[in-house]
Amino acid sequence: MIIQPKIRGFICTTAHPVGCAKNVQEQIEYIKTQPQVEGPKKALIIGASTGYGLAVRIAAAFGSHAATLGVFFEKPAIDNRTATAGWYNSVAFEKEARAAGLYARSINGDAFSDAVKAQTIETIRKDLGQVDLVVYSLASPRRTHPKTGEVFSSVLKPLGKPFRDKTVNFHTGIVSEVALDPGNDEDIRQTVAVMGGEDWEMWIHTLNEAGVLAQGAQTVAFSYIGPELTKAIYRDGTIGRAKDDLEVTAHQLSDYLAGSGGHAYVSVNKAVVTQSSSAIPVVPLYISLLFRIMKEMNLHEGCIEQMYRLLAEKMYRTDGTPVDGEGRIRLDDLEMRADVQDKVAMNWRSVDTDNLASLSDIEGYRSEFLRMFGFGLVGVDYEVDVDPR
Ligand code: NAD
Question: Considering its fold, how many domains does the chain have in total?
Fold first, then answer.
C-alpha cells in the first residue's frame, strides 16, 4: 500500500517502514562519524524504540559495540494498519545491529509490569549473563501499578495558580493562547506515579536481586529543566514534581548501588521533538523558537547528538563524569546558555501567527515531527507500494 501521514492532534496514526528504517540508518551513520567510545558492553534500554531511548541504543551499539536489549511498548501492523514508528525503528535497528555482528534483542510489552521485568531478566540470564548499563527512558501517559493494579494517568498542569501563555498548533501554524487550571494534590500523585522514580527503582532492585547487574553497573534516567518560559507548565508543574521524584530516586539508587561500585545518574537533556514533547502545551512553540536560534548559532542537536555526548563526554569519560551541584549530568548546557535563552525570550515576546515562519523554525519542527514517523526522508520513494508488515 501507499502510506501517507495521517495526523490526529499531536500524533500521526500511520508510520512508514522504509522511512523509519532510513531514520535509524541516518542515526547510525552519524554515530559512525564520531570517535568510538570505551562505553557500555551490555546495555538494557527501557523505552528503546523512539526518541532518546532509541538514540542511546544506537549510540551504545554503534559507538561502543554494545550488545543491546531493548524494552518498549509498540504495535505491529495489523491488516492494512501500519505498525507504530517505534516498531519499525526497532526492526530496522535489530537488522542493522545484527548485520554489524552485534547482539540485539527486544521485548515488546508493558515495562511497568512484573511480567516484562521477569521476561527481561530471563533474557539477560540466557543471552548476556549480566548488563553493565541500564537506561531508563520511558515516557508514558499511563501506568498500571504492578502491585496494587491502580491505573495512574499523568497530567500536564501548572501548580499554585492558573497558567496562561502562548502556544502553537504546529500543523496549522496558528499561535494562540492556552489557559490551564492548576493541578491539585491528586494530579501530582498521579503524575509522580507515572513519570516519577518508583518504576525505575523497581527495575534496578529487581535486576540487582536477580543477579543480572554487573559489578559497577551504571544506570541513567532522563529529566528536563528548561527555561523560565516553560517553567510554570513544566518544571514547576505536575510533570516537574515527577522529575523531582526521579532525581531523588537517582540519589537513592546511587546509595543502593554504591556497594557494588555502581552509580545512578539523572541526565538533564535538551528539548527535542519527540512524540512525548509534542503533547506538552507551549513546548512546541518554545522548541520552534529554540531550534531557529540554535541552528543560527551552529549549536543545534537532536536525540542522537545528545546521546553520543552522554556516553562519550559524560558517563564514560576517563576522568570521571561531570555533574552539577545536585549530582545531575547536564546535556542541556547549550540550550540553557544565556545568549541562546536571551534571544529565544526576545522572540517569544513578539511571536504570533503572522511572524511565526520568520521568527521560528516551525518548518524544521514540522519536518522533524514527520520524520519521527518515517515521512519526509530524503531518498525514500513514498509513491512506491510497501507492505506495512
Ligand atoms: P518517546 O515518546 O520518544 O519515547 C518513549 C519510549 O517509552 C518509547 O520507546 C515507548 O515505546 C516507551 N514506552 C512508553 N510506555 C511504555 C510502557 N508502558 N512499557 C514499555 N515501554 C513504554 O519519549 P522521549 O521524549 O524520548 O522521552 C524519554 C525520556 O526523556 C522521558 O523521561 C522524558 O521526560 C525525557 N526527556 C525528554 C525531552 C524531550 O524534549 N523530548 C527532554 C528532556 C528529557
Answer: 1
